[in-house]
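Dear Dr. V.,

Thank you for agreeing to look over these. As mentioned in my earlier message, I'm a first-year student in the group and I'm still getting used to reading structure tokens, so any feedback on how I've presented them would be very welcome. I ran two proteins. I've put each sequence directly above its structure. The first is here:
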Amino acid sequence: MEAKASVTKPTPLLRLFRFASTKDRVMIAIATCFSLALGAIQPASMIFYGKLLGNMHSLNEAHVMQATQPLVLVLVYMGTGVLVGAYVSNCLWVMCGENQAKRMRVAYVHAVLHQDMAWFDEAADGSLTTRLTTDTQTVQDGISEKFGLMLTSLSQFTAGFVVAFVTSWRLSVIMLATIPMLAAFGTVMLLVTSRFTRHSQNAYAKAAAVTEQVFSAIRTVAAFQLQRRFAKRYEHALEKAWVAGIKRAVAAGLAYGGFMFILFATYSLTFWYGARLVHNQLIEGTSVLVVFTAMVVGAMSLVNVPPNLAAVASAKAAATHLFATIDRAPKIIHSPQVTAPPLPAKGELQFRHVSFAYPTRPDVPILQDLSFHIRPGMTVALVGMSGSGKSTTFQLLQRFYDPTNGQVLVDGKDARSWPLHTLRQQIGIVSQEPVLFNMTIRENLRLGTTATDLLPDTDMDKMEDAQLEHACRQAYCHDFIEKLPDGYNTLISSTMLSGGQKQRIAIARAILKNPPILLLDEATSALDTQSERLVQKALESASDNRTTLVIAHRLSTIRNADWIVVMDHGQIREQGTHDSLLDNAGIYADLVAQQTISTRRECDANQIDNDSIRLFPGPPSCCQSPTRNSLQTQTRYSSDRINTVSPTTPSPHRLHRHSSCYESFHPVSTTPTPISPIFGSDMYGDNDDTSTLPLSDNDEEFPPLETATAQGIAISDTPHPLPSQWNMTGRVLVLMKPEWPFLILGCFCATIAGAMFPLHAVVYGSVITEISNPGFGREVYGPLEGPNFYAFMFALMAAVALFGFSGQIISFESAGETFTQRLRQLLFVQYMKQEIGYFDLDDNKVGSLTTRLAVDAKNVNEMITKVWGDVVQFTVTACIGLTIAFLFSWRLALIILGVVPFLVMSSAYESLVHKRLEEKSRKSNEQSGHVACEAFTEIRTVAMLNRQAYFEYKYDASIATSHKQTVQKAYFASFGHGLNHAITMYAIAVAFHAGSHLISQRLMDVQSLMVTLLTLLSTAQGINRFSQFTAAFIKANRSAQCIFALLDRVSQIDPDLEGLELTTVDGKVDFQHIAFCYPARPDAPIFRGQFSLNIPTGKTVALVGKSGCGKSTSIGLLQRWYDPASGTVALDNHNTKSLALHNLRSHMALVGQEPVLFDMTIEENIRFGGHEDMELAVDDIVEACKQANIHNFISSLPNGYNTRVGDKGSQMSGGQKQRIAIARALISKPKLLLLDEATSALDSESEALVQRAIDNILSKGGRTAITIAHRLSSIQNADIICVVDNGQVIEQGDHYSLLELNGFYANLVQQQSLRVDV
């Protein structure tokens, strides 16, 4: 994407606050004032310290108490001011940061949803959802309380230097010499952190794109055993993030260590030079005290700058991509100056010399000088080979793209002159791959209404249910919806709908829109024959008085079109009516012939005329009907072989076939009962009361689904309980065993860094005592005496600090980055191990899993890198500080420690607030991530429905809970934050008051007072700094719970469990008395223990029946995506549960109903069809593509097999995707080929060629095929055809035998005949 690719520089600082409202700006101004004032208070108090300490040596002990009382009161007042200032500033920073982040997220979602499709096609910077969740959080961290803390620290530093300059400019000038070096290290840290953070975020976004592909296509991943290969891809993406993270760690560590080195070296230089000035009588000793103390207080504040500065730097880097997306103006946009034509549109359409090529493949023309004119009210069908440009015309009509040359006219006006929203409102579409959103069926339907606003309390709530039901009855989906547990209020995510059911709901949604222009792109491709005919009638009725464009490969659906346009390579080859095109005997006539369903046995080709393609006659005289015995021979299977699967399996029962008898495997009545004719909608509608074969009394041998559940068979999943929160740190440590060397080194360096503060306090206290002595600087000192000794000590501490602080940051950051890489990899692999039913649950949708994976790992990383090091550092500081304090004055130490419980309680209070609010907002964050992910992934559906505003509102509503919790955190947690700051000032006041009393009692001296006070204050500051990471620790602890809940979860179908390994298989498949329901829909059984089927070795078995009858479910059970509640699925007489899962699936290959291609090259997609250890030559890939009739198309592309297919194959047509998927399945030459509507998206010619290739492969022997098809022409040559209805096989035999029955199958054939009227 050009806008994204050009972005290299971080966002300017002030631009981070671009989403601040006027109210937010006022809050930012107030918060800034309080933050600056808060930082200036402590350096200002140094003036009082200097005067007091300067007089302490000259004052009599009896007067010390009286002299210190004014200072104690000042400190109390200042402490109260700090309490108020810290509370107000933190509260306002958190609130305005959350407000801005909320607007930023909504703006990002708005920008993404309004981008043109070319932007999505060219997307190359990873997951949009991950950028939304993690990058906005990073920006929020940089513009909220951490920004305020940075301002406070800078203010404290500045105020310290101001006080120093006011007191003595000579000494302060020397201090300024080190400022450029401090600034240089700070700048380096900022730039380096921003750069490597940006690289790391880009790498993580690309890694997240891998996870989204896997989670959204988990069935394909499982079917082809792609887990390890995607794990490697994910690992490769994480490797880049790890490299950037390590570089950032080293740079940040060296910069921070150098920063501390310069700081301590400045102490050394300042103290040494101050002594020289006093010795030369240029300033007084008390002035050196004030300057030095103010400088130390100011400089010590810089310790807090790097982590907060790093947060701001990361925010600048993260905002770069966010703001680039938000600011990008889509190329296809509604101009406010455009005036809409009279509405509603008449429906006149014209393509005038249109040429077009997709932006990602500009050298591959799709449409070439295409011209045709459609009058209002006409129904025009577009037919032709896959990739001929049919669907592209639909996309140009909807202005997903604009033509390269020429014009698309609507009602005589160029489509580009229409307001975009208005234009799309005039168009209704049912696409080839119907998309339903994660909401109720009712809400999905209402998305298709003409209401411009679907927000609560508006049209969505006021709309009459009768209108919905009427549309659903027209689309023949009302009956099955009513049978769902919650009817129209059933969540799509909580139910398993068949492709046909989803498509009928999509059709009902289109009917509700009532558009002047209706586009049907393979609208009935996923429907069974009866439903297709009924829905076709509904669509024909809906097409009345409107312009309708139809794309269909199943030509029976467009025979009544007013005009048929035959396209090839983007040009019109033929056009006319159905009959006229047949009479022309051209391309269209050939397509019709290829879809002919033979109705007679081909004893002699010369005896068969062309009547078969025009009529539905009886059997020809040349073909004798099969005898009853021959039919029995063809369909009878050995009960002995079946019984080898399970000794307890009941013996086979006979299935009555009216006018014949052959065997199946569910009990039937011994009294023949004919099957009702199938001319009404009851049989192939969604009525469970359709005629079925009655069962005998033996039916109780098969336990109902409820009994199977009661016996302990797991058919659904329950939320996995979270492990105890108290042992999370320990479990993380155990998991981090490979990183222990980093942690040990980091702890050692943190120990050194932690010791710096109390040791600094000892030296500093001694320095203050030395300076406040009236005789300071008047005598000559040796190299290591007096001020020279202390200057040397500070220099030595500078060198040690360089090692300690650098080592701590580098070690813990490296450990965190390395562990995070392993953790993400471990979690991703663990997710891929879960059974398919796990991904059906509401909590485990694509957006939720992607968000969880990114956020949980990030939180744990922050605990390691930002919390653990400070915990060690604080612990060492506390131990050494308390020891020193007790050595110098145990009395004062005990008094000051009396304040510590208040400090602990304030920190505990802040932690508790963070913990409670984190638990409440976590669910909201996952939900919002799923909403955004779903909208981004299905952007074409969102755009064609004109529902961007609705999904923006839905996302806004989903983050409302999290927003509310954060605002509450601002109010309540800020009190603990303010108290933490204030208690430090109160502790100083208590220390001076008690110290002056002890001095007056001659129980301690001034040096003991200062050393004890400063060591305990450094310890208190450590506690205060540690409290800043409380929120990070709480979030990380919660994330660790979720992580270990996943790692502890045992998959119900574990791919790692050992099992029987079959080197080769014959391909014999048995289903015995299967009972099953989907885990997400336990109250809606698919099979009730009556589904039994035997598939002999080397045979092609076709399953036909209405949508939702369980055809695809049988393939899922064979693949062990699910396990039956009762009954047995067997391969070569081995229960599939006894086979190792990878071994079971290695003998199969699947082409699904909705083919999934991954965002990589064509060659890489096809290679995924082979086993991981399978060596595939280029010739093997080419051969598979030739068999799938896709090689010529691929060769015509500029990059050939190295052409990227785009996300979900978006750069390919439906037929092209399906042929690539077929090539992927054929590449491994599987023993068991599973074809679930494998040719549904193919044109007639491609279907015939591909079907012939599949037939040729199967004819070579040694291969079993299970085919599911609604287009019966593709399965008429199958060895066995099984009609499935109501969870059982009701007819089976070959094509001609079933035609003789004149039952279910025969009626289906009649309905698909192009020359028979219904």
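The second protein is here, in the same arrangement:
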Amino acid sequence: MADMDRFVEVEVLKTLGDVNLEKGRLYKDAAKLDRAMMLYSSALLRCEDADVGESLENRYRHAEKLRQGKTTATSIKNEPSRTANKMPSIAMMAEKFKHLDRRLTVDFDKDSLLIDYTKLVVEGIANEDGMLEVEAIKSLGDVYLKRGTETKDTPCLTKATALYNTALARCEGVQGRVVLIHRLLYTARIRQDMKKNANRVPKRRRQQQQQGDVPRDFPFTSAYTDVVGQQFMSPSAYIASQTVKPPAPDDRSYEDNLTAGARALADGNLDRAEEKFASALRLIHDPNKPDRGKEAECLCRLGDIYVQRGKTTKEGRKFTQAASLYNAAMARTDTDTDKIKQSLQDTEQWFLQHTANVQSEPSPSDSAMSHQMRLEDMRARAKSQLEAIDQQHNPYQYDEDDPKMLAAEAERAEAVKALFKNIAKDRQTFIQDLVDECIATLGPPPCKYAFIGLGSQATELVTPYSDLEFAILIEEGEDDDDTRRYFLNLTHYLHLKVINLGETILPAMAIPSLNDFYSEDPDKDWFFDSVTPRGFSFDGFMPWACKTPFGRDKTKTKQSVSLIQPPAKMAEFQELEVSLTEGYHLSDILRRVAFLAGEKALVNKYRKNLNKVVTSDLLSHFQSRLSAMGILSENREMMTTYEPTGQLLNVKKDIYRFPGVAIEILVLCCQINLASTWAVIDRLRETGQIQRENATHLTVLTSISAELRLRTYMANKGQKDSLSPLDEIKHQTKTQKVSDTTLKSEFHIPDTQILYRYYYRAIPLKKCIPEVIQDGSQLQSRGVFKTTIFDVSNECRGRIAKNLFNSSKCIHHFEAALKDAGTDMISRSVLLVELGGYLALHGDVTKAKSYFEEALMIHKGIHIDNTANPVIAGSLHNLGIAWGILCDPKKAISCFEQSLTILQCIFGVSTPHPDIASALANLGFCWRDLGDEGKAISYIEQSLMMRKTVYGDTAHEHIAKSLTALGFCWSSLGDEKKAISYYEQSLTMSKTIYGQNTVHPDIAAVLNNMGLSYSNLGNQQKAVSCYEQSLMIKKAIYGETARHQDIAMSLNNVGLTWSKLDNYEKAISYFEKVLKMQKAVYGEKAAHLEIATTLNNLGFSWRKLGDYRKSISYYEQVKVMRKRIFGENTAHPKIAETLDSLGSCWAEFGDAKKAIGYFEQSLTMWKTIHGDKTAHLEIAGALYNLGSLWSKLDDQKKAIDYFEQSLRMTKTIYGENTVHTLISGALEQLGSSWSKLGDHKKAVSYFNQSLRMAKTMYGDNTAHADIAKSLHNLGSSWSKLGNQKKAISYFEQSLTMEKTIRGPNAADKDLVRIFDALGTLWSELDDERKEISYYEQAIEMWKTVKGEDTRNPGIAGRLHNLGLCWSNLGDEKKAISYFQQSLAMRKTIYGDTTAHADIALSLFGLGSSWSKLGDHRKAIRNLNQSLTMMKKVYGDNTAHLHITAALHELALVWNKVGYQDKAVEYEEQSQRMVMSLYARGTLRF
């Protein structure tokens, strides 16, 4: 609990359960079995691992069976009997705590107190006594709080905080919660006081850092510029809900609804049948993960209902609704398509029979397919023509300032115009043929008629995917019921044929059980058609839509409208009274029409009627201007949003619509009665109302908008308007699955320069349009535009580049704009703030600060008499943000406080104001950066209260941001659970503001921060889930393959989480994507802190995978980049960290000298940063590392010097008598170095100190790696001191502890070394059997570690030693077996014919054993081979102990077989060699 390690907590409870289970089984104690069951249940509640959970369930069932066997035959309960185990009374519990609490004051440093409290925790869990459990956990927190306060050890405070939070989560009483909250606040205050008094700078950040979305408010913008805030767009398609998953469908309810619906349909109860089938559909409907098979089944059933409704009511719409349902079903399934096609033919047959009263055969079954093929041919022709335009007219090959570009753009615009005229003509022919087909079946019309195209069909900007918007003109004097009925039926029949093209989405059909647009209950408009492709279809039946002959049904506020009218009646929609009643949109859409089918004379007549109304008198001028003002008002947001935001564009709303609106306003103001956009522009130029240059720019702007819409639809294969304005990263093109939602790559513009050229014209045109309406009466005399609608100023270019995240272009143009501004101080200040704001968040913060400072000077000069000015406050605020990013929170606080003072002077100290709230929030962030989370929380809470006062209790984005900020602060305090609580509140509010399924940067930021908190809690799986949801939203905002730093940050966080899960391969794949993206954003060769961090993460990951060359390569790049950023000769913590990393990497790679070089540089830099005489952890760490490396190079004296310096400094930091891991580690290393120098007594002294400290830290009876290491080292030192028994004792303790830590069946080379050491020690004590036991364990474990067939010198040596042991025990056969294994392995390792000392020794052992067994021939052969090989290895005439032994053994064998002469000869050689060795001092008697 104290370490927030849920896994260990579960293991402890499971082990306690096992103990009680075993006791219950042995002693037949039902109470113990009850206790075991309760402990398993508690472990199961805390368990997050499926396998462990299954194991716990099995244990529980086993305990339950045993318990049932212990109860009486009359017992019917299977649950543990808890009543008997509960504590007798609260009084008794209080008495226990009273006794322990007395001990707390004096025994807080003793582990026995922790054990006693822990027993009470277990008792509370086992007895389901929540009060006891909470009190005991709280008391454990008190112990750690006392320890932390007394010893100044912050890890104890961390443990206290974790325990108090655990108790708080399990506490049910209000009073108890208050007490725990008080303890948490007190612990935080103690920690803060310790931070303030510590003789060191704030703790250095880890090399790998996960990034949170810091909720810092953005820079203020100047008061002199009209800057529109970012407009965040919801994509047309839903994405997965970020935190709330839809409930799993209830298959039983689904089937029940289908059955009930089928029964109702059979009974003729169509309303109930529709209700049931719609309910079944709703149960399984998920737009993000549609169950296509089940949806198809429901839709087919609903189609059957609407066929029956059509037969009953004879309404044509019911049959078209049925057809749309069948087509939607066919889009969702590959099975039963023949049946669905038959249903569609039947629907057409029933329509003709019941609605049109025509006894005729329906269209052939392949009719719809031939229509679909014709539509695809039309699209293929358009695509081919567009590709030809790309080849023949490419203005984007030129530099922007090249005069050739304008001419090339004009040529391309003319080619695009021709393309769209062709598309419009192709569609008109296709529609005319469809109409003729319908008339051929229905019979001739009762009068003359004309189908007139509306919208983009009329303006000649239509695409092959566009909706069909049209009306019908009928002959004057023929407007009666029969005529209307015929043309309504004709429209329904045409609609059937269009629906059968398969591109009509269901919401467009307004089926009440799916999408009831007339209901005031939004829950009744629930069906989203994410499957049916949206393309060529009728304009929808929504109440606000009326661009088909059906018109609009009656609503609460408006009468029904029909668009089947004689020309004169249709023209009446332009009259002022009708326009005001119906809204200008209807009159505007009917003003511009094109011929589709029928009699052209009727269209001409209609146009004449239009001219009479539109241009007849002064009233018409007023009406046109009024209509233009209405259009401007409806599109105010679009007209005032100048540059793109970098988020995904809706190509129709954000690109295509504006030129159309602008031209519509020009048409009204100039009273031009032409339909085609291209013709309107030509007329404006011909009449001189716009100049030729502006006419060209207007043509180019219109052509770009139309082309981009067409390209987007072609790429997305339908009316999907999602377009990314950012450059595409080429690393991924296929559909990607994230969480449970599939995201496809968005359409990216082949060359983003086309967008720049669009905005160069759109921005000035947006600024001109309001003036056009204002000066409407003077347009005829002086022309429409006062200026050229083409702005390529550096300021305009800079803003567009900024929003499209083109850093180099943005900075270049803004800096040029600053030069252009000259002495215009107001313009200059605007540009300084804008450029500074961009650099502060995306580039050079130092330069940003200088720009903010200059802007502040200008503002102070302008407002010299009024320093209490919001503009000056804004400049100070911006400076504060710059200092905050530059990691100087003190200067940032100074700026924010000055800004706050000015704002309070302007608005009042106690007046709630958004700018004051923003200043308070940023002050909070700065105090957080300084480590004073208490002050940070205070300021942010003031900001939150103020924002709630300003905005009320409603959900507001600023309140949500304050909640996010509070979460960030609590996360910094280490209370991740509280942080997550605030993040969840913020997330809920953000979804209330922006929509449950809406993508928005604020939602992405909160999810990212939640991921960081879960990661810090150790729940990496939840962290990955949050990060991936955040990443999914960011990709939905900016584009699946867009380059953007927000996406890079999320990718980085996912990578770091995989790194924490030790999946470094996955981590590297994410870091590589991040690096590619960052280089795309900041420049391939840019030196940027974020790029350096990513390179560092790659270096770290490759190091963990053991590829040191790659790791060093990345770290070297980091070093070079950080030196470029901070200065070649600057001492900076980031550069020092990189030197540390390079040192560590070279050390692990095995090059200690290179490692020393880097650590010496690092040490010098840390001393420069912190002060040469300052005691600091970074310096102590560098000294420690240098000591380790000199020890590896066997210069133990140097090593000892560095270790002693490190030890002294660490003790200065933490206190002379403080128990700390760093002090313990330095003592261990000193012992190791003295041991290598041969002073084993000093080594033992240091190892003992380290051991005592480790036991104090971790507990006397705790199994811990540091304790095991000290025990091992003590064993080694006592062995060298010749005290084998002490050595064996320490090694055995170390072995026991290692097995406890690693598990009883663990296999590891460290354990092999312990077995070897014990084998050797027992050999020295002449206990061959124990020696054999340990050597055999060593061999078995080594085979487990390295593999059964492993050939290793170590195993061969151990086999040889086993042979010697069995020989000493007199079992020569076993000895020979081991010698032979050893010999075979050594020959395999060194080569069968190689002369090697180890092979010679194996041969010698074999010879000696064969001699003892009496096989003298084998003995002589092996001994001769051994002797020959030894002479080759050591030299033929060299005296060596091994050779003397071989000669002596041969003498003995020859003597046994009776060859005394040979025996004497070998023995004399042996003795002469012994005397030679003695004379050289190699051998002593």
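From my reading of the second output: The CA atoms of residues 1143 and 1158 lie 5 Å apart. Residues 404-442 form the longest helix (39 residues). Does that match how you would interpret it?

Kind regards,
E.
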